Amino acid sequence: QEEIDLELLRDLFQGRDVPPPPPEHTPVGIRDELQTMIQNIITSDDSVTPRSIIAKNNSINANFDKDTLSEVHASLNNVDKLRTLVAKCYKNMHPYGQGNLGVMHSVQCKKFDMHNYVRRIEQFEDGQTLILCMLDFQAKALQNLKVQGDINEFEVNSYDEMHKLISSYCRIYTNIFTANAYQRLFTQLFEVIENLSEKPVKFYHIDGTGWKCILGDLDPGQAKGLGLALEKRDPSRNWEEHLTYIFKSCLVHFNRNLIAKKFDNEVHLLAKSIPTRSSVEEVHEYCNDRSIT
Predict the structure, then answer these.
(1) How far apart are CA 135 and CA 272, in angstroms?
(2) Are strands 214-216 and 247-249 parallel, antiparallel or unpaired?
(3) Partners of 167 in the beta sheet?
(4) Cα separations in angstroms, 200 against 16, 205, 241
(5) How many helices (H) and strands (E) does the chain have?
(6) Helix, strand, coil share (%) of the chain residues, nearest 5
(7) Which tens digits make up the pLDDT trace of 117-130?
(8) Separation between Cα atoms, residue 99 and residue 90, nearest integer Å
(9) Distance, CA of 269 to CA of 148 (rounded, Å)
């Protein structure tokens, strides 16, 4: 038997109205306008959550001239209503999610102009996913890149020595970091640059013109992958030989890796002195003087 609510009975007998529960259904017009507002917010900020919409009520005020959603309509007093609308907007805008499959769908459907930026999406048998992003003018600028000073910094960027600025030319996303994965990465990168710029990618030590230096971060898989990609273009040298001609590491990464490794003091001092030596011969002389093999 249900327990009788004495307070409710007292209110009824005293002639006082009991407030009705808030309505469950939001009018279609308000709901559609709210969804349009949410879509516009997501377009400018793809990390939107229901609580962030409530916390930053500028859009609510601009669209409905109200400070809170509950003032727009009583049914919106429940945050679950807003959560459902936000989820629906995300589903409409990203029907295949925002992962690899979603990116592929957006590129194929030419949504959000991604097809002009995401140039290649590849998936390989070992599970590697490779997404290469580059604009036309970035590929052409990369082809015309000139070396300034002793080192021209290039990973997917270049360094302007005069203005002390880093320019970004390309972004590549991958989930596997083996030498083979990086070989694919560099091979695909060179192909995309050639396709967009309509000029062959050239390397100074192979072609007598072109890029003289590629700067890396001493990741062994990345370095070997680059060497393998170059060996594929010029089989007359093995991957290690190619690296001796073109690959360099910046001092920041060199010292960072030196600190991370555990060497005895003498070897540590030797390694630390390498960047100050002008040739391999000087390094050998230094080793001989200290009887280091």
Answers:
(1) 40
(2) parallel
(3) 158
(4) 85, 15, 22
(5) 15, 7
(6) 55, 10, 35
(7) 777 777 788 877 77
(8) 13
(9) 30
